[in-house]
């Protein structure tokens, strides 16, 4: 670890590859010999157009998608997509069908419910969102406009380890916290979106990857900036985009490619998750994981200690050891270690070692 830097376990904004940060730093004042920072260049200028196009190309290459899919750069966070999706695609005759597996899946459903176009296909709320609903639990309306999932749950630490069969109903997924973290058959999804601040870049842009024919169907009655067709037709340049954020997303995508692609990310992420989960499972009950083992997330490890007093002490002493951001979400408490692509194995290993030491001193 570099001097004066910590291992950052925050859930988002989150850790970024150090080499990417250094690249951005090196060209910050003079991007591409333009004499300007990337923050100053017009989004209509050729240097930025190249950044924009390369980021899109690298993302589609990593996902194994062809020309029938488009990459959009939107704003408003994933939370705005919660409303834009039902506005663009759902109706009372063809509602959105939502699988509730955590806080953000529930928030997405509430936006559709507010519009009168949402229904619940399955929910794990009755067990405090400890598991991902399995295929047999899904009650999908064949007339639904789409089935909506939150593929990884940052707050509860659960993640899908299968792709649901929807019997022809379009499959939509919020992948904010596990986007490009492992290989998937992305062609089985019709619409994917992700707030990039967890695994792909700084806060300020939402990545949308979806079938072009779907994006083109936005109702003309919607305001211009609420239509996905606007982003499709104008290459996400109808208004001034968050250019610096897109530039950083492009650099992170290029970094993933250079490091070995999604297969290598998955290999690393499984190894990191294993060392932290082992610290939980071998603690004789001192640490209690929230998620059922078959639903555990590779991205967000959540657990509790015997008391809130010990949890506060854990957070304080972890920070003293250069382990930052391990406090759980305010709605559920406990601990949460976010181990996204950019978290090195050494960070997860150091956390596991600290957990073992803390347990022995406080059990």
Automatic annotation (TrEMBL):
Domain of life from the UniProt record: Bacteria
Main location group: cytoplasm
Associated pathway: Amino-acid biosynthesis; L-serine biosynthesis; L-serine from 3-phospho-D-glycerate: step 2/3
Domain Aminotransferase class V intervals: 6-351
Residues bearing PTM N6-(pyridoxal phosphate)lysine: 198
Record carries keyword Cytoplasm: yes
GO molecular function: O-phospho-L-serine:2-oxoglutarate aminotransferase activity; pyridoxal phosphate binding
Cofactor dependence: pyridoxal 5'-phosphate
GO biological-process terms attached to the record: L-serine biosynthetic process
Location of this chain's protein in the cell: Cytoplasm
Binding-site residues for pyridoxal 5'-phosphate, renumbered to this chain: 78-79, 104, 154, 174, 197, 239-240
Reactions accelerated catalytically: O-phospho-L-serine + 2-oxoglutarate = 3-phosphooxypyruvate + L-glutamate; 4-(phosphooxy)-L-threonine + 2-oxoglutarate = (R)-3-hydroxy-2-oxo-4-phosphooxybutanoate + L-glutamate
Class of the enzyme per the UniProt entry, highest EC level: transferase
Keywords associated with the record: Amino-acid biosynthesis, Aminotransferase, Cytoplasm, Pyridoxal phosphate, Serine biosynthesis, Transferase
The record's free-text note on cofactor binding: Binds 1 pyridoxal phosphate per subunit.
A Gene Ontology cellular-component term: cytoplasm
Quaternary state and interactors: Homodimer.
NCBIfam families reported for this sequence: PRK05355.1, serC_1
HAMAP family linked: SerC_aminotrans_5 (MF_00160)
Biological function: Catalyzes the reversible conversion of 3-phosphohydroxypyruvate to phosphoserine and of 3-hydroxy-2-oxo-4-phosphonooxybutanoate to phosphohydroxythreonine.
Family from the record: Belongs to the class-V pyridoxal-phosphate-dependent aminotransferase family. SerC subfamily.
Name of the protein in its database record: Phosphoserine aminotransferase
Source organism per UniProt: Selenomonas ruminantium
Encoding gene, per UniProt annotation: serC
